């Protein structure tokens, strides 16, 4: 089990889809997102598979190459928006002419980066998009006396610092993005892990138990509640 303390740079939005046909670039981006921010990342090598993934799963952001085999990025973007999906989409393009960028934004892209780009800038753009997509313009998530800083990846309750494992942090951040909503075990697993998450199906209870113990130490008011047969809810 991961025992990293939830500290360091970068926030931790949950699940990202990368649609990119250059294998080395796709793997470099995925590695950066996983290692720097703890994202769960799915990869699609062409537009057809990318569209299938985007329509079959819930993502916090999509990184979409413009020049793709089978379906190009513009076709994928148009199809995603046509179904009413509002998932933030960042387009990766070798084109920087104004007309091309305007067309992308008009088609529903939220942002773009021109190749070649710096991975640090890419990560910062993705984080900002996900915060805005979740209605969070600021990096602080809070409920009652609980605060989570998605930039420093630190957690406090009543001003008391709380050290979490990396996975406990990810569960808590996901719950804080959806306060007072019942979150099922399946939903947590789908957002915490990559496409093949079934092998981790027994760990959610362990993370919830650890979070409860740490959050309730020194406080008489529980914040994480279990709804029998449905999942867990974070509420004051």
Mind explaining what this structure looks like?
By secondary structure, the protein is α/β, with parallel strands linked by helices. It has 2 domains: 15-133, Rossmann fold, CATH 3.40.50.2300; 140-234, Winged helix-like DNA-binding domain superfamily/Winged helix DNA-binding domain (Arc Repressor Mutant, subunit A), CATH 1.10.10.10. It contains 8 helices and 11 strands. A 5-stranded parallel beta sheet has the order 2-1-3-4-5, sandwiched between helices. Helix 2 runs parallel beside helix 3 (73-82) and helix 6 (166-177) crosses helix 8 (204-216). 36% of the residues are buried.
Which strand order spans the largest sheet, edge to edge or round the barrel?
2-1-3-4-5
**What shape does the CA trace take?**
elongated
Q: Please describe the biggest sheet, giving its number of strands, its sense, and whether it closes into a barrel.
A: 5 strands, parallel
> What CATH architecture label of the largest domain applies?
3-Layer(aba) Sandwich
Count of discrete structural domains = 2
Q: What's the N-to-C terminus distance? A: 29 Å
Determine and state the CATH class of the largest domain.
Alpha Beta
Q: What would the average pLDDT be, to the nearest integer? A: 84
What share of the residues lie within helices? 25-40%
Structural class: alpha/beta
Please name the defining characteristics of this protein.
236 residues, alpha/beta, Rossmann fold, Arc Repressor Mutant, subunit A, 2 domains, 5-stranded parallel β-sheet, 4-stranded antiparallel β-sheet, 8 helices, 11 strands, disordered N terminus
């Amino acid at each position: 089990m991961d025992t990293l303390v939830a500290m360091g740079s970068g926030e931790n939005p949950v699940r990202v889809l990368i649609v990119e046909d250059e294998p080395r670039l796709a793997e470099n981006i995925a590695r950066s997102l996983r290692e720097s921010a703890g994202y769960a990342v799915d990869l699609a090598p062409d537009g057809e598979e990318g569209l299938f993934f985007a329509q079959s799963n819930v993502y916090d952001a999509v990184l979409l190459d413009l020049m793709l085999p089978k379906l190009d990025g513009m076709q994928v973007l148009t199809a995603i928006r046509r179904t009413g999906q509002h998932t933030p989409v960042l387009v990766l393009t070798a084109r920087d002419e104004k007309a091309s960028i305007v067309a992308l934004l008009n088609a529903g892209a939220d942002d773009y980066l021109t190749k070649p780009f710096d991975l640090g800038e890419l990560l910062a753009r993705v984080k900002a998009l996900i915060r805005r997509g979740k209605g969070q313009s600021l990096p602080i998530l809070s409920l009652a006396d609980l605060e989570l800083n998605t930039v420093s990846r630190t957690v406090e309750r009543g001003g008391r610092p709380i050290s979490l494992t990396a996975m406990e942090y990810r569960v808590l951040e996901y719950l804080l993005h959806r306060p007072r909503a019942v979150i099922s075990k399946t939903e947590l697993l789908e957002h915490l892990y990559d496409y093949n998450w079934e092998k981790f199906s027994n760990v959610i209870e362990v993370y919830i138990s650890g979070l409860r113990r740490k959050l309730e130490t020194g406080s008489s008011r529980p914040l994480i509640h279990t709804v029998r047969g449905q999942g867990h809810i974070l509420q004051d």
